[in-house]
Write a structure and sequence with these properties.
4 strands; alpha+beta; about 30% helix
């Protein structure tokens, strides 16, 4: 049995102002392969993503764009 490790990355996202924004960003990023949890915080503009392996930042950027927001980069 292999030990599963996870990677937590915090991204900076601009444009989120409310709970609906947080939900939209979380839903899009949650759809990426390997993502186990997403916690978006509009107040800080931070999105904390836990995944099985490091994510391709361009995939995360595309998901954030799809939700209607802008990924600045890793926080």
């Amino acid at each position: 049995m292999s030990t599963q490790t996870s990677v937590t990355t915090v991204y900076k996202v601009t444009g989120m102002t409310c709970g609906h924004c947080e939900g939209a960003v979380s839903a899009e990023i949650s759809g990426l392969d390997g993502v186990s949890s997403v916690k978006a915080a509009a107040a800080t503009g931070e999105v904390t993503v836990t995944s099985a392996a490091p994510l391709d930042e361009e995939q995360v950027r595309a998901a954030v764009d799809e939700a209607g927001y802008d990924l600045v980069g890793k926080s």
